[in-house]
Amino acid sequence: MKKIFDDPIIQDIFCDYLDHGDQIVICQICHAKLWKAESIRGQKKGNTSYSLCCGYGKVELPSLKEAPPSYQNLGRTTTSTSTSRSYDLQIIEFLKDMLDSNNALVKSYRMYPLLFPYGDDGYRVDILHRGISSSSNSKRPTCTMREFFAYRIQDMDQSFSLILNAKRLFQQFLVDGYTMIESERLFFIRNQQKILRCESYENLRNQQALGSTDISNVGQRVILPSSFTGGARYMMQNYLDAMSLCKWFGYPDFFITFTCNPKWPEVQRFLKDTSLHPEDRPDILCRLFKIKLDAFIKDLRENEVFGKVQAVVYTIEFQKRGLPHSHICLFMHADCKLPTVEYIDPIVSAEIPNIDDDPELYSLVKEFMIHSPCGAENLNCPCMLDRKCSKNFPKQFCNHTSVDSNGFPLYRRRDDGHFVEKSGVQLDNRNVVPYNKYLLKRYQAHINV
C-alpha cells in the first residue's frame, strides 16, 4: 500500500489520490489565502487579486484589532481542557474582565461580543469600495453585505483571526451573516415590486377585452423572481431546464452521489497545528468540496470515465451533520446509453476487493462504501424505517450482473468469503454500496455510482 505522505497525522493518502495542495496563493490586495484552483476560477488576466475574497480589490475593510495574547490562547490551545464548573467560571470571569477593560460598549449593554473584544465596526450601508469617493458616479459604489462577510471570513496571511478560531461561535457568526444577507436581498426585492410585478400577456389582454380600462391591479402584488436562490420560480426554472435536457438527450444514464470527506488530506494539513476540528471550519469544507466537485465533473466529461458524456446536471445539498454532498445525473452519448453486462462490470463494482490483490482499494471500500450495520444488528441505524432498511440492505448474493425488465442493473455480489468488520459486525458483499474503482481512489470519499 504505497502512500505519498510520511506524516502520521495524515492517514490513508494513496498515490492515486488527486491532491489539491495547500493555500499557497496569496491575494496581493487583502492578503487572503486561497487554493490554486480557487484562484484560477474566474481569474482576470494579469490580476493578483481574486473574486472570492475582496472582489478583485473592490472591497477594503479596516483590519480588526489584534486581540490580547491571553485571549488568543483560548482559540490557539491544542491541549484538552477541564470542563469542570470551577474552570468554566474562571473563563467567564477572565472574559468579563478583559472585555470590560477594552470595550466601552460592553459595560452599557452586557452582550458579551466575544468575537469583537474591542467593539470593531460591523457592516454599514455606506462602506465605499476601494478607490471610490462619495462623489463618484459608479453604478454601485458601496460594499454589499455579502462582500463584507466574504472579506471578514478569509484567512489572511500572517494574521490571527478570532472569528475563524471561535469554533461554535464561528458557526453562529456564519448563520447570522447568512440571515442578514438573505434579509437584505428580500428587502431589495420588496422595494422593486413595481418593476417585478407580472401577469401573463394573455390574461392582460383578456382583462382589456372585458372592458377594464385600468389593469394596473392585475397580477401578483409581491413575487420572488427566479434570480432569488431557493425561491419557487428559481426551483421551477431549474426543474424545467433539467426536463428539457431529458427531452433532448433522453433519460439520464448514471446517478452519482458525491459526499464531502472531512478527513481529506487538504483538510488535515490545514488543521494540523490548530485546536480546530473539521466541523469548526465549515467554510473550508465547502470550498474544498467545490474544488473537488469541479475536478470530478471535469473528470467525467473530459476523461470519459464512463464513456462520452453529452450533458451533466447536479445539485448540492447538505446532510443533517452539515457536510455538503452532490447528486449528479449524467446523460450519455447514444453509444453508451443501453446498459449491457459487458459495459457495466468494468465501471461499477459492488464487491469487497481482495486485500492482497489491492490493499489500497480494500481500505477505501471499507472506509467509504460499506453500508453500516442495520436491521437486527442495529435497530437504531438512521436508515431503519418500520424495522426495515429503507435502502434495502443487505442485498442478495448474485454471481453475475444482470439487467431487469425495466433496464435497471442488478450488480454482481458473489459469496466469495470476503468481509469487513464494522461495529463488531462482519459485513460481506451484500452490504457494499456500488462504486467505481478509479473515482474512489482518485477522490477518496463516499461516491455511490
UniProtKB/TrEMBL annotation:
Domain Helitron helicase-like: 148-328
Stored PANTHER family: DNA BINDING PROTEIN-LIKE, HOOK MOTIF PROTEIN, PUTATIVE-RELATED
Name of the protein in its database record: Helitron helicase-like domain-containing protein
Species of origin: Lactuca virosa
